[in-house]
Amino acid sequence: MNTPIRLAVAALVAVLTLSGCGFRGVYDLPLPGGGDLGDNPYRVVIHFENVLDLVPRSSVKVDDVTVGQVEAIELEGWHAKVTCILRGDVRLPDNSVARVEQTSLLGEKFVALRRPTAESASGQLSEGDVIPLSRTNRLAEVEEVLSALSLLLNGGGLQQIQTISRELNAALSGREDKIRSVLHRLDEFVGSLDRQKSEIVRAIEGLDRLSRTLKQQKQTLADAVDQITPAVKILAEQRADLTRMLVALDDLGEVGARVIRQSQQDLVANLRALEPTLRKLVESGNDLPESLEILLTFPFPRTTPAGINGDYTNLRVTVDLNLDMLLNNLLSDTALNPVSEPVEGLVPGDDSDENGGGGSLLAPGSASPGKKGSGSGGIGDLLLGDGS
After folding, report:
1. Is 129 helix (H, G, I), strand (E, B) or coil?
2. Alpha-carbon distance 353 to 359, whole Å?
3. Beta strands of the chain (E only): which ranges?
4. Same-domain pairing of 41 and 133
5. In this structure, are residues 116 and 102 in contact, taking their beta carbons and an 8 Å threshold?
6. 244-258 burial by CB neighbour count: b if 16+ within 10 A, else e?
7. Is 241 helix (H, G, I), strand (E, B) or coil?
8. For a designed S-S bond to 355, which of 160, 180, 334, 376 qualifies (C-beta 3.0 to 4.6 A apart)?
9. From CA 316, how far away is CA 173, in angstroms rounded?
């Protein structure tokens, strides 16, 4: 048996042997550079919207360094479920992100794991962890880029750009200074908005708080609107009366203005005449109110209650009356005594007596009622008090 036949037989035996052991084709053949996973490898499940032409045994890299390989790719719902096996010494955050990338423009696909950039790293990736769709992505394919470029070129995109450029040149021609001024003002406006960013944010937050408050009081506002409806209806019914009232009020205002204009000089004169009186009242200060306080306790001062012992006080009053003078004063220039002469029958008293020489209504030579056999016409001491 020659050498080719021997090789063919050996290959056939090897194929039969492998088929008996569950050989699944080229996927079971190890790829160079990705087979050594070290001790204690762990598995991570990653969900992708689209894995393109990623295949099992593809590499898993961190910072372009191979740290594992793709173990299986399955369809779960409408997205792909990729199971990756990583070396045990690989330490990644629990919120790591994954992306399907290419080694070159036409190279093979691989899974790239990276630390998060939109948030701070937390935890540690371990056996059985899952990276969800929100933290996975993929690069654009060359075919997609060429397809978009073809659409731009064949669909008239360049012609549209040319038209836009031509129209812009026509619109801006001769207006460069104005456009430059507008851009400068726009730059100042944007800069002012940037400087007032905190105030704008605070205003938006205040508006948000107001909106929450209104939302919490929605039922109260609805009740208020329901209750104000009858009042609005009454106002609508009385619109004619309100209109007449406003017209009458306008007429009253015109009359009042005319009266004020006509009496302006008299009013000013009265105010000026009142000015000295008011100034004197101001200058009197507290004297006037304090002097008026005695009206409540006349004829006693306001300090009298402090001297009262019990419920009354002792008072001794001496009254000296001249009756003829008193009657002359009362009857003078009246129908009873038109000439202010002394009343007949009045006997003038002696001014030198010890009682004051008071007059008397008694006939001449009569005794005084105040003292028997005396010629005095005065009234004796009047003693008021506690009966002493």
Report:
1. coil
2. 11
3. 42-48, 59-62, 65-76, 79-86, 97-102, 109-114, 130-131, 136-138, 316-317, 382-383
4. yes
5. no
6. eeeeeeeeeeeeeee
7. helix
8. 376
9. 118
Pair 328, 384 in one domain: yes
> Tokens standing for 172?
């801006």
If one counts the domains in the chain, the total is: 5
pLDDT for residue 204: 94
Angle at 303 between CA 298 and CA 305, to 5 degrees: 85
Q: In this structure, are residues 359 and 377 in contact, taking their beta carbons and an 8 Å threshold?
A: yes
Q: With beta carbons less than 8 A apart as the criterion, state whether 43 and 72 touch.
A: no
DSSP codes joined into one string, 171-209: HHTT-HHHHHHHHHHHHHHHHHHHHTHHHHHHHHHHHHH
Q: The domain containing residue 47 runs over which residues?
A: 31-137
Say if 12 falls within a structural domain: no
Euclidean distance between CA atoms 55 and 157, whole angstroms: 37
Query: For tokens 């360094």, what's the residue?
Result: 65
Q: In whole angstroms, what separates CA 354 from the centre of its chain? A: 92
- Amino acid identity of 381? D
CA-nearest of 174, 200, 258, 89 to 250 is 258
- The Cα-based distances of 261 to 251, 253, 324, 348 in angstroms read 15, 12, 63, 69
List Cβ neighbours of 109 (8 Å cut-off, separation of 6 or more). Answer: 51, 52, 53, 54, 55, 58, 100, 101, 102
Contact 357, 349 (CB under 8 A): yes
Which pair of tokens denotes residue 134?
Answer: 């929100």
Question: Each residue of 20-41: pLDDT tens digit?
Answer: 445 455 555 555 545 577 788 9
- Residue 162, domain member (yes or no): yes
Question: Within a domain: residue 16?
Answer: no
Q: Which of 109-113, 152-156, 163-167, 327-331 is predicted least confidently?
A: 152-156
* Tokens matching residue 121: 């790293």
Q: What is the gyration radius of the CA atoms in the chain, in angstroms?
A: 61
Q: Do 327 and 321 touch, CB atoms closer than 8 A?
A: no
Q: Do 133 and 162 lie in a common domain?
A: no
Q: Which of 105-109, 329-333, 344-348 has the lowest mean pLDDT?
A: 344-348
Question: Residue 222, SS3?
Answer: helix
